[in-house]
Design brief:
With 256 residues, the chain is an alpha/beta fold. It folds into two domains: 29 residues; 221 residues, Rossmann fold, CATH 3.40.50. The protein is built from ten helices and ten strands. The strands form two sheets. It has a six-stranded mixed sheet with strand order 2-1-3-8-9-10, sandwiched between helices. A four-stranded antiparallel sheet has the order 4-5-7-6. The longest helix is centred in the N-terminal third of the chain and has 24 residues. It is globular.
Amino acid sequence: MKRLGIVIILILIFSSLTIFYTLFFMGGETSRGLSAVIIDNVSLDPRFNNETFRNQVKTILEQANFSRVDYYGPNDVTIDLYRKLPSLGYNLILLRIHSSTLNQTDVCFFSSEDFSLNVLYSKYKDIRQYLVKASTTIAGENRSFFGVKPSFFREYANGEFNGKTIIIAMGCDSLLTSSMAEAFISKKALLYLGWDGKVYPPETDSNTIIFLRRFFLENKTIGESISGLSDKITYAELDYFPLELSNLKFNEWLGS
């Protein structure tokens, strides 16, 4: 009986070690927990510093079993952050950032770094082909920032996304063309959502919350989750790329 008891104990120990190894070394997102980030330079304008939006995102994602929701505020949205973005390991990235299109072709993402020719030809001289002067109005003042082209992510950014990453580009014209979406997909993002025209910050905030609730809590498909989502002021619509992921659901996402 004593020998049998030892055997049973050894079996239990082996089983426990096997489970531990599976969960912590092979479990991927299931063991480590899902992670998300909000990257926000729209809050450079105090009128659009929306703490309610941040709290709502966190609440929804925590209900969907995300273990971490990080936040990078206006002063953190740098060229270096964009460079590191694919390698940071997030499952969901909300880009609450200013964006525009260059000659109606390439989408441009704004950083929060003020544009300067001196800085362009000193600090950024080796990557200046990936950068542009990106201008917008902040709190009634015309401001110019360093912006990044799709080629910045495609050719210069570090590492790759994890193959399951969903990008929500909340700014103007972020999916007017597929140029930026294609750059993110080339870096192993799974899905890119964006707007086909100009958007007003409170509108993109509220529509993003609706999308998150539908997709992560109601388990609707991507197509169902964006259905009818538009800026009621500018009439821009939320869209996604690539289109073949229309039927993707949250409960199938990590196994896609």
